[in-house]
Amino acid sequence: MRRLPFYVIVSLAVAAMALPAMAADKPIVVGYPMWLSGGGGLFGQPSAKGAEMLVKEVNDAGGLLGRPIELLVRDCKGTPEEATRVSKELILKDQVDFLVGGLSASQGLAISEVAKQEKILYIAPISKAAEMCEPPKLHPYVFRAAANTKTEGRSAAVFMAKHPWKRIATIGPDYAYGQGVTQAFVEWMQKNKPEVEIVYQAWPKLGETDYTPFISPVLAAKPDAAFISLWGGHFVTFAKQALDYGFFEKVKVVAAGEAGSPETARALKDELPLGITSNSYELFYFPDTPEHNAYVQRLREFSGDEYGSSWASTGYIAMQFLVEAIKKAGSTDTDKVIKALEGLTIDTPIGKQTMRAKDHQATRGQFWGTTAKVPEYPFPILKPVEYIPAEDLME
Amino acid sequence: MFATGTSPCASRKGATAREGFVLMSLPDPSFLIIQALNGLTNAMFLFLIASGLSIIFGVLGVLNFAHGSLYMLGAYLTHQCVSFFVDVPGYFWWAVILASLAVALLGGVIERLFLRRLYHREELYQLLFTYALVLILSDLAKLIWGTDQFSVSRPAILKGAVEIFGQYFPKYNVVIIFLGPCIAFLFWFIMLRTRWGRMIRAAALDRETLGALGVNVNLLFTVVFVSGSWLAGLGGALVSPVSAIVPGMDVEIIINAFIVVVIGGLGSFWGTFLGALIVGQVYSLGILVLPRLSMVFIYVLMVLVLIIRPWGLLGRSLQR
Q: Which residues of B touch A244 (CB under 8 A)?
C-alpha cells in the first residue's frame, strides 16, 4: 500500500484531536476500582489482570462496536469509603461509561449506591453480600457476576448434608460477609437436614491476629464438622494456629471464602491441612475442557504467573458480561445495555453463565473439593473437585 | 461491623439466632484448663511487653507510646530474618535473637539521639514525641513490608502439641509459658541483687542525688531504655509464630499493655506480672461467657481499678 502523504496524516491527526466526539474510535471507558494494595492485593491484583486480559482480547479483535475499550484500574484500598470516593472520581473526572469492581462485600454495597445515584451501570465481580441484589437495595443499575453469600453458604450446606455429620460448629468473621454466609449456611442446613445441631458459633473480628481463644471453645463443643468462612490471609493465620491443637484431626472442616483457591494453597504449602473441603472461583487444573485450558494458557502468558490465578476469572467474567451486553444492545447507552444484560447467557471459561433478569444476579456456582497432595504441584490442590451449580440454590 | 452495610433488621435477626447458641452446655474441666493455658500464654506475651513499658516509665519517667511499635518491628524483623536464614539450622532462634537485638539497638539510638533531650521538658513533649514515633514507625513498616499479612512457621522441634487431659496444647505455647516467668525472675534478680539493679532503683527515686554520687546516670538511662526495647522486640519476635504479623498490631498491643500496667500499677514490676495474668485470663475465659464482648470485661475491670485503686493493684500511691 502506498504511504499517505505527510500533510494528510497531520490533518487527520488534527481532526481527530479537534473533533473527539465525532471520532468513530472514541474508546468505551470502563472504571475498575479494585483493592490493589495491602491485604486484599493478593486477590485484587489478579482480578484486575483478568479484566485487563479480556479488554486486550477484545481490542486486539478490533474492539467493540468499532471502538476500543479503555479500562481504568484504580486502587480503592480495603474500605467502602475509599471505594465510594474512587468510584465518584472515575465518574466525575474520568467520565467512565461503566463501572466494574470492588472487592469486599461492603465495597460492593458502597459502589452500588454510587451507581444508583449517578445512574451508571455497575457490575460487581467479587463482592458477595446477598442483600446487594435483593430489595430494598436492588436497583436497575447494579448487577453481580460473582456468587453471593446465599449461594456460597448454601452450596457448603449441600456438600455437608451429604455426610453423616450431626454436630456442627461455625467460625466466621464478624462483618457483612461472615455473618451473611454463615447465616445462609445455617438456615439451609436446618431446613434440609433438621437433625443437624449447631453446637457452637465463634465470631472473631475481621482481621483477628490470634484465633486461639476461639479454637479451644469450638473443640470443647465436640463438633463433627465446622463451617469456616475466614477468607484469604485470615484463613492462613487460622490454619497455622489451629494445626497444633489437632483441630483438623478432630473436626471435619468445610471452609468457604476461597480457602481452597490455588492462591491460599500456595501461601500455606505444607501447612494447608489435607482432607478439608473448600471452594474456589476457578481452578487452573479443573475442568479439563478445551475452552478452559485455552483460557488458563492465555492467562499464564498474559499475567506471567506460571499457574494462573483463580481470582483473574472474577474480572474476566464480569467484563465478559459487559462486553456481550454491549454487543447485544448494539449501543453503549446505559438503559439499552441494562435491557441487554437482563437474562443474558454467555460462554465463560468455566461454562455457561446467565445474568438473571429478576434480581440481576449471575447463576454463578462454586467449585468445591477436598484438599489433597499430588505429585504434579508443589502445593495441595482440590481433588476430587465438583462444580455445585447455583440454579437450585437461588430463590 | 456497623460500617459494613448489613441492614439493621438482618443483623438483629442474625444476632438473636446466634445468642441462642452462646449458652452452651457446661464445658468439661479439661477444656477449661486448655482455655486457661491459652490465657496464660497470652499473659506471658503481655507481661514481656508491659514489663518493658513499666521499667522505662519507672526509671526514666517517660510513658513510651512507641513501645508497641518496637514490638511490631520485632515481629516484622523476625519474619524477615526467618526468610533470610531459612537454610541455617535453628534459624528461628537466630531470627529471634537478631530481631530482638536489632530492636534494642534501635531503642538505644532513639534514646541517645532524641529522648535524652526531652527529659527536662514537660511530660507533654515526651508524649508527643513518642506518639510521633508511633506514626513514623508504622509508616516505615508499611513502606518496607507493605500491608500484607505475614506469619512465621514454628521451629520444627516445637511443631505439634502435647496432650493434657485428652486435649491438645501446642508445644510452642508451653515453652512461652515457661519462658515468661524465667525472664521475670531474671529481671527481678538483676533489680534486687546486682549493683546495676540497685542503681536503677536509686535512679527511679532520685536521679540528681545518684548523679551527685558519681554514677553515670546518662549511661544508666540508655541501658534501661535499651533493655526495655529489647523486651518489646523479644515479645514481638516470640509472638510471630502464633499471631499474624499485620500493620496495626503496634496500636493493639500498646493499648493492652497500658491496660495491664494500669491494673497492675505503673512502675511496679510484680504488679505488671499480676496485671498480665489477670488480663490474659479474663480475656480467654470471658470468651466463654460472651464470645463477642470479652474485651468489655477487661475494660470494665480497668475502670473499676481506676476508681477504687487508681495507682493499680500493686502500685504505689502517688500521694507520697
A: 154, 159-161, 168-173
